[in-house]
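Protein in question quoted in full.
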Amino acid sequence: MRVILTGGGTGGHIYPALSIAGSLKKIDSQVEVLYIGSADGLEGEIVPTSGFEFKSIKVSGFKRSLSFENVKTVVRFLKSIKKSKAHIKAFKPDIVIGTGGYVCAPVVYAAAKLGVKTLIHEQNSLPGITNKALGKYVDKVAVCFKEAGKYFPAHKVVLTGNPRATEVANTLKVGKTALGLNSRKKTVIISGGSRGARPINEAFISQIAAYEQADFEVVFVTGSTHYESITAQIENVESLKNVQVRPFIDNMPQFLVSVDLFVGRSGATFLSEITALGVPSILIPSPYVTENHQEFNARSVTDYDGGVLILERDLTGERLFTEISEILQDDARLKLMSSASKALGIPDASTRIIDIVNKLI
């Protein structure tokens, strides 16, 4: 089997594509994979180090205001379709899979026009503009949230989940002590992601004295870019006994499977992880993302009682502390939230996607 993968701009588009590639290679080591993306995008850094062949095209997204730059974008798009067709003809794939981001538009479109089987994977509850546009051209659309299905032709939609869920679903619980946590207390992780989220950090810091006296333990992940400024605001950070302050956590799935509650953003990939593991959550979606899609993602969990939603505009230190305390003090509620979260998870996502691929080719 020969497969072209494309998608970029953010890790949320790139890592699912690499997960699909890895799953295909596990089943058949003879599978040949070509990744097409932008050399200037994040995929240009990540993919070459993953061991897969990488070819680049030059493409850019549209500006949301009238701009001469949009004329250049159209020209680049037309040129990138031509270049994509050349890559496709040379590689002769059995299928082309796009995982979102404007870079995949010319590649998937070119494949469809050449008669190559095509599949797009949509990670968010509210699909991105690229995938919505490609929906009418592709053979199948894999979605992670059932709410996304209404944006595509119904006969093309298959609920698969995010392949990242497959990678974390079987994470073994090693116990809190092995992770440096207090085994006698419930534990909450508060994190705004690898880079951190200032509003979440500020809400936490405003109530740090209350957290230090709480009957539950806190792992506060500042994000690498905020760590120094946050620790500078905390008097005697080394003397904290109930709060651990960390810049980031490398093995987050290992922690998630062991803690009692997660607080943070609602990126699609991360939600696939916590639902695969059945982790209760308090979700604070970023309002700064395209079309506010994180709120739609969050509601796909909180509307089914797998978590609690706090919009950033409503976030205060007092409210966050109260919500965390009330959940962790209610064992019955915690259990129901965990069950609801796990019911939304799709741990066999990779298998479902590969099944679509096999049926198409």
